[in-house]
Specification:
The protein has about 170 residues and is an alpha+beta fold. It has one domain (about 25-160). The chain has 3 helices and 10 strands; from the N terminus they run βββββααβαββββ. The chain has helices at about 65-75, 80-90, 110-115; strands at about 5-10, 20, 25-35, 45-50, 60-65, 100-105, 125-130, 135-140, 150, 160. It has a 6-stranded mixed β-sheet with strand order 6-3-4-5-8-7. Strands 1-2 form a two-stranded antiparallel sheet. It is globular, with a radius of gyration of 21 Å. The two termini are about 35 Å apart. Mean pLDDT is about 85; it is low at about 1-15.
């Protein structure tokens, strides 16, 4: 996609003409984190939503992350300073805490791929069944393989889940 943004770059020689190069501008996306209620005295997961419309429409919810998965994404490429990450963690401390970061990406697809498909904690479908009321729950969760988390059914039953490796089905 050519957005027409140009910039002149002066060459080293005084007699040479400036070269014009095309530069892609980045779109700024709002990434909204919301702390879900704690379960079984453990911190709740963090809901992840990407807003590409500057609040004009509801953002796209990608799923929920563990704290470790969130910190890994925030620390990648050193895009967010340690002070900013600490502030985000502080804002997400209580249930229903919220924090928003703004990141520049070439396009929405790149932003979504990074936050969704992060190596080691890809957001993927997780299905579990309540032992008391037999309701099947389907969630999109980002956690490392082997991570154990607690989920609460609407009936009040708490179930501990351990994230297992996702292996594609063979035909």
């Amino acid at each position: 996609m050519d957005d027409g943004t140009t910039r002149s770059i002066a060459s080293a020689g005084a007699a040479s003409r400036p070269k014009t190069t095309r530069m892609k501008t980045q779109q700024i996306f709002s990434i909204v984190f919301s702390r879900l209620p704690k379960v079984d005295d453990l911190p709740g997961l963090v809901s992840l939503t990407i807003d590409s419309t500057n609040g004009a429409q509801p953002g796209r919810t990608l799923g929920s992350l563990t704290d470790v998965a969130l910190r890994g994404r925030l620390a990648h490429w050193d895009l967010h300073s340690a002070i900013e990450v600490a502030g985000i963690r502080r804002a997400l401390g209580p249930d229903h805490g919220r924090a928003t970061v703004h990141e520049g990406w070439p396009d929405l697809g790149s932003c979504i791929r990074f936050w969704h498909d992060f190596a080691g904690s890809t957001i993927r479908p997780v299905e579990w069944t309540c032992g008391r009321c037999s309701v099947v729950h389907k969630e999109e969760l980002g956690a490392s393989v082997g991570a154990t988390l607690s989920r609460r059914c609407k009936c009040g039953t708490i179930k501990r889940l351990t994230i297992v490796a996702h292996l594609p089905r063979l035909a």
